[in-house]
Amino acid sequence: NMLRVDVGPLGGWHLDVAAVINNSAVLITPTLACQCGFSMNTGQLGNTMIYASLQNCFAQNVDDMTFTTILNLRLYGSGKVEDELHQVVKTCHYTLWASREIVCDGSYMEASECRANSVTDPRRAKVPIDAGFRITTLVFFTPEERVMKVAEAQRSGYGIANTPTRLVLRSSKASPETYSQTVAGVPMTVLKTSIIFEKKWLVTRLDAAAACPALEGSVFFTENTISWFLPWHIDPLISSGHFQLLEVHMGVAGERLDPAEMAARQYSLTVNEMHVVVEIPVGAVGGHFKSRVQDNQYFSSYMIEPMVELLWVEDAMQEDTKYKVLLPITTPMWRQPPQVIDNTVPEERRFKVLLGHFGSDVFLANITFPGEVMSVADCNVRGFNVLEHVYPNGTSKFFTLEVPFTDRVVLQMSEVGLTTYSLHLTFGLLVLPEYAPFSHTAYLDAKLVDVAPPSISGSCDHQNFYILVKYGTPGFNFQTIVGKQMLTSSLAQQYNLMENGTHLSFAVPFSSPSVVFEVRSACNYDERLTRKLHLLCVFSELSLACNYFTTLTECFPNGTMTALAVKLEAVHSLNPSQLTLRDPTCGPSYSDDRYAYFVFTGNSCGTTRRFLANMMLYENEISLPDDLEMNLSHAPSRLKVSCYYDVNKTHAVAFHTRPRRSKPYADNAKGELQVKMRIASDKFYSMFHSLEDYPIAKFLLQPVYFEVELIGSTNPEVSLEMENCWATLDSDRMSLPRWNLIINGCPNPLDPHQVIFHPVLADDRVRYPSHFKRFEIQMFAFAEDKDNLSQQAFVHCDIVICDTRNPQGGPCNRLCSNQENGIKGMLSHFLVMETNVFKQS
Ligand SMILES: *[C@@H]1O[C@H](CO)[C@@H](O)[C@H](O)[C@H]1NC(C)=O
Ligand SMILES: *[C@@H]1O[C@H](CO)[C@@H](O)[C@H](O)[C@H]1NC(C)=O
Ligand SMILES: *[C@@H]1O[C@H](CO)[C@@H](O)[C@H](O)[C@H]1NC(C)=O
Ligand SMILES: *[C@@H]1O[C@H](CO)[C@@H](O)[C@H](O)[C@H]1NC(C)=O
Ligand SMILES: *[C@@H]1O[C@H](CO)[C@@H](O)[C@H](O)[C@H]1NC(C)=O
Ligand SMILES: *[C@@H]1O[C@H](CO)[C@@H](O)[C@H](O)[C@H]1NC(C)=O
Ligand SMILES: *[C@@H]1O[C@H](CO)[C@@H](O)[C@H](O)[C@H]1NC(C)=O
Ligand SMILES: *[C@@H]1O[C@H](CO)[C@@H](O)[C@H](O)[C@H]1NC(C)=O
Fold it and tell me: Could you tell me which residue ranges the ZP domain spans (predicted)?
């Protein structure tokens, strides 16, 4: 029996409502609203609801079944250039009329009575009041009788209408003809009338009454709950003793709600002995907060318009009554000091602030920090992340923001080991729609123990890197990555990791795969090799380098040489297992992805020998075979392997230039023997060039006098014999070009200037002539060298020590035959001689 039109939100604008009838609009003033069945309510955020009785004065009523109401709405006010006009046409069908329908709206009460069923006196027969009857007079019972003509009553603000089947009477709750009556402890406003109808000489009357609860005395507030007590036996409206309450419903904003919806909203509706009790939590859905500002203080009240509908019958008269009360309830204004909740976790290094709780009509305009005022947008640009949050029940909200400690609005004060961060801020807030400003100031402090990050240091000895991590202040968790490997517990064990409350230490052996090699300077590869350990703790990085002085090449007195070729970090693609010595068939004895380890002897794998002053130099090279080298992206690299043997200290040990004969004659012997080859400066072998003289310059064809001497032997039974001598351009005895001077103890027959052997006779210096050999060559030039005679030539000799008691032919018996026999290969370190001469034209 009511219709509702929602408008809004209106913001700050005004709304005029006019009803349209016979093509003219009638502005609904408050007085007219009470008289004609209109009311208007402002809801959340300025939404406006217009309620109208179906039977309002301006409704086009078709047979009391279809009701059409046309409203003109005009929006105007500040900021609107032109008025905004809307027309709303609402048509409702309503046929389930009860005998009596009573509506209690906020400001008016309405009674709609069925004329046909009404009787004035239960003892008389029912007299239908048909269309011919006119209302002439109203009798109010206040409770004294007061009689008023219809026109007078209408002038006094009563709405009286006589529709095809019903009588409608409407009155302001404040009209003088109402009176107050307490029903079940609840004060009610009562309007009781008898309405006189006349038709020619016929007169009849109809009683019409309404009773509505007053707000005061029926509604009670606590801070959290609204309780509304409504009597269900409304005495002024009930005339018989046969009363039966059939239905009780509850709704809000004019709409009935089902029990599930009520439960969701935490509304409660109970019926006790005398009352229907409605309980609504303050803040529940369906209502809204209205905020107010007074002296910069924030107040709010909660508003809701619950509705209760009752249906009862009075058996005796077969009359049913629909009774509907809409009661706009506003809680008292309560001061709600805004709350600032400090959710800061200092370790996150930002203030986290919550400001609440406010009605949804409150807006945050700006925030004032020391020295600057920032709008919400400014704050968000600055990264303060100001957010507005609405509670799920939609009626209240709060704000949050975050201010990093590093922002300039945060003040810092440091004491020993403790920094205090302070934030002083004033929130500028506005209440809509009035734009009433208010502010709230908050001071926040956060203390943070200064954090010292862990530190890391390291050192090394000749075997290990030692790493020491000093913990920082607690809470600094970190992970350690050694090289490319996470420091797992199994690695930790391997690295002998130790931990006490303040430190962590471990040792990484040089053999660890995490250790890489690096060359600091390419000039002396062996000596400057550096082992490098890269360590990463999440807080810092340490790259520790230790020079590695351990010899990569080892030279054993027995002639065994070992060499370790190490892959450098810079040469990823190298596969150490592919490295070889000069002789490509000599690969590493073992290798992995970082090393190749070679074991070889001085007479194998292409090792060369050279004599220096009192020293022998054995040399080889480690490199990739040429075909692989070509495929590498980096420059070819060769690792030179050198062994110096001190001639004086070297133990003579069997050393085979050729496979050993199956029937050796002499026993292998060990002794400290040495042989030297010198160039005499005269043909009498009385003077010799000293070591410093080399290279010695000679003209072509000039004689060069060589003497070879076995030193340190007092055994007259041994003799020194020449086996082969040859000349090369290079110090490498195997190099080409090569010219043979002596072959198997005999001069090279092809030589145009053959070697001349000179006899050796005993003298002061020569005690055992058999320990000496002397020969002469004529200086020559290599064909390859004919254009450049300033180059050096090297003369190399293989010699043999023979047992004179048992000459076995070959060089030992000096037959200059091709037979090869004897004890060649003995005393290997001394078998190879070389010296160099310098050619000059
Ligand atoms: C509207 O017009 C009808 C007939 O045209 C008239 O009876 C009625 O009184 C008018 N209503 C108003 C409010 O002027
Ligand atoms: C509204 O929601 C807030 C937050 O969920 C809650 O604290 C408050 O009690 C709710 N109010 C009602 C009436 O449900
Ligand atoms: C900040 O907002 C408040 C409203 O709460 C207002 O009164 C004040 O003028 C604003 N300050 C500035 C600088 O805009
Ligand atoms: C922990 O170990 C470090 C380094 O070994 C040492 O300097 C320190 O004194 C030790 N601390 C304690 C409490 O043992
Ligand atoms: C030479 O000496 C080294 C070191 O003593 C030894 O490992 C190696 O086996 C020896 N080689 C020979 C052929 O005896
Ligand atoms: C070197 O590269 C060439 C062409 O990429 C390839 O054919 C050859 O097999 C490679 N050699 C080796 C030894 O990998
Ligand atoms: C080696 O011995 C010779 C002669 O015995 C001597 O003159 C020379 O100084 C020695 N060399 C070294 C390096 O000891
Ligand atoms: C001759 O050889 C020497 C030594 O190898 C070299 O320095 C020089 O440049 C050469 N001269 C010519 C013209 O080839």
Answer: 554-819
pLDDT beyond 50 at 117: no
Ligand 1 centre from 23 Cα, in Å? 10
Average pLDDT score over residue span 361-390: 93
Q: How far apart are CA 21 and CA 608, in angstroms?
A: 127
Nearest to 574 by CA among 512, 511, 640, 517: 517
pLDDT at position 807 over 60: no
The number of the ligand nearest the C-alpha atom of 712 reads 7
Q: Name all domains of the chain by residue range, CATH numbers in brackets.
A: 2-93 (2.60.40), 100-213 (2.60.40), 219-282+302-327 (2.60.40), 338-411+426-449 (2.60.40), 455-547 (no CATH), 551-646 (2.60.40.3210), 674-834 (2.60.40.4100)
Q: Which atom of ligand 5 is nearest to the CA of 558?
A: 1
Residues in CB range of 588: below 8 A, 6 or more apart: 565, 576, 577, 579, 596, 597, 598
- Which residues have CB under 6 Å of ligand 7? 614, 646, 648
Task: Verify cis geometry, omega within 30 degrees of 0, for the bond prior to 337.
Answer: no
Ligand 4 pocket residue status of 503, Cβ below 6 Å? yes
Contact 470, 454 (CB under 8 A): yes
Tell me the pLDDT band of 659, cut-offs 50, 70 and 90: very low
Does the pLDDT at position 789 exceed 80? no
**Whether the CB of 558 sits within 6 Å of ligand 5:** yes
Residue type, 352: K
Counting ligand 5 atoms within 8 A of each CB, the residue from 558, 604, 651 with the most, and so the one to mutate, is 558
Ligand 2 atom nearest 395 alpha carbon: 1
Closest CA to 203 of 115, 119, 133: 133
Amino acid (1-letter code) at residue 663: K
Q: Contact at 8 Å (CB) between 433 and 11? A: yes
Is pLDDT of 71 > 90? yes
User: What is the distance in A from the centroid of ligand 5 to the CA of 599?
Assistant: 10
Protein residue with least CA distance to atom 5, ligand 1: 22
Q: Among 314-328, 676-690, 781-795, whose mean pLDDT is lowest?
A: 781-795
Which residue in the block uniquely carries the two structure tokens 């990739």?
A: 624
Confidence of residue 824 (pLDDT cuts 50, 70, 90): very low
Which residues neighbour 201 within 8 Å (Cβ) at sequence distance 6 or greater?
A: none
Atom of ligand 3 at shortest range from CA of 429: 5
What is the predicted pLDDT for the residue at 570?
A: 62
413 contacts 420 by C-beta, under 8 angstroms:
yes
Instruction: Report residue 173: phi and psi, to 5°.
Output: -65, -20
**Rounded distance, CA 164 to CA 395, Å?**
45
How many angstroms separate the CA atoms of 277 and 272, rounded? 7
Which among 154, 184, 186 has a CA at the least distance from the CA of 172? 154
The CA distances from residue 337 to 166, 302, 361, 441, 499, in Å, are 54, 16, 16, 11, 54
Cα(631) to centroid(ligand 6), Å: 6
DSSP assignment of 540-575, as one string?
Answer: EEEEEEEE--S-SEEE-TTSEEEEEEE-BTT-TT--
Pick the atom of ligand 6 nearest to 625's CA.
13
The best mutation among 611, 645, 647, 648 to test binding of ligand 7, ranked by most ligand atoms within 8 Å of the C-beta, falls on 648
